[in-house]
Every structure is written in C-alpha cells, then in structure tokens.
Amino acid sequence: MLWEVLYLKKTRMTNQRLKILEYLRSVKTHPTAETVYEAVKKTLPTITLATVYRNLNHLAETGEINRLLVRGVSHFDADTSCHQHAVCKECGRIIDLHKNTLIQESLKKIRIPGFKPRTVCIMIHGICDKCEINNKKRKEQRKKKKKTGKKKTKRLLRS
Questions:
Q1: Structural domains in the chain?
Q2: Integer CA distances (angstroms), 94 to 16, 26, 123, 126, in order
C-alpha cells in the first residue's frame, strides 16, 4: 500500500523512506526526528540521523506527512487527514483532535478579499491532565515548605 501511494505521487521509494513512513504510521505520538531515528535504527542499523532528517523533510514537503513546530522542535504526523492538535504548554505533548465542525465553522467565517480558503490548521494550546495534577502537587509542596519554614523561624525567634 505505501509503495502504491508513493509511486502514484512519483516519489522515489527507498527502503529507508519506507521504514520511516511505516514507523510514523504505526504511532500516534507525533515523534521528533531523533525519536524516528532511534526507532528505525533498530531495523536499519546503518541509517543515519541525516538520512532520517532528509527523508522526513521530503515526506513533509510532498504532503505525505505533516510537520508540526512545537516549542521550537519539529514533530511529525503521518495522519494527513483534516484534524486539529492540542498541545500542552508544560510538557509539549501533542494530542490529535478530530472535530470537523471546528474547521467547517472557521472556514465559513473567514473573509479575505480575492482569496478563497480551502483548509484551516488549528492548534490549541493548554495544559494536559497529567501536568495539571503535577502543578497542583508542586503548589501543595510549596505551601507545606512555607508552613514549616514559618514554624522554624518562630522557634528561632523564641530562642
């Protein structure tokens, strides 16, 4: 199937490119080039990081995959269907959202003279549940430290 897709797009298929694309299609984590490299290196030990970067860039430029820039780092997504991304501003985790009504409503409201928009890329920034829980724990720990610090100060003043 991957061979057919790339053949129809007249993209030269190399074993490295095939393994990279297979890996990206097998995960939903939006990996970085380094993560892709580490995974693909297990089946192709001679592959280099430069080859992975070159192939990821080529696949992104030809529309076979999406490139997302999050916190200054490129992440890659083999899901090229129309969807949105939610990004945690704390840990950088990327979550796929398939809310077609967001795109449809956005396209209806966009008015640009001399231009007809066809698609919209939506990236929603916030805090994931895991980071929210960790933030609450840190706040509680800081409160405890302040209370114990005040008790120590009172004891020292009494002495």
A1: 1-77 (1.10.10.10), 81-153 (3.30.1490.190)
A2: 25, 16, 9, 10
pLDDT band of 151, cuts 50, 70, 90: low
Structure-block tokens of residue 6: 């790339």
Q: Tell me: the pLDDT tens digits for 23-45?
A: 999 999 999 999 999 999 999 99
- The torsion region of residue 130 among left (phi > 0), alpha (psi -120 to 50) and beta comes to alpha
Whether the CB-CB separation of 106 and 122 falls below 8 Å is answered with yes
Cα dist from 97 to 45, 73, 85, 94, 116, whole Å: 34, 20, 6, 10, 24
Report yes or no on whether pTM surpasses 0.85: no
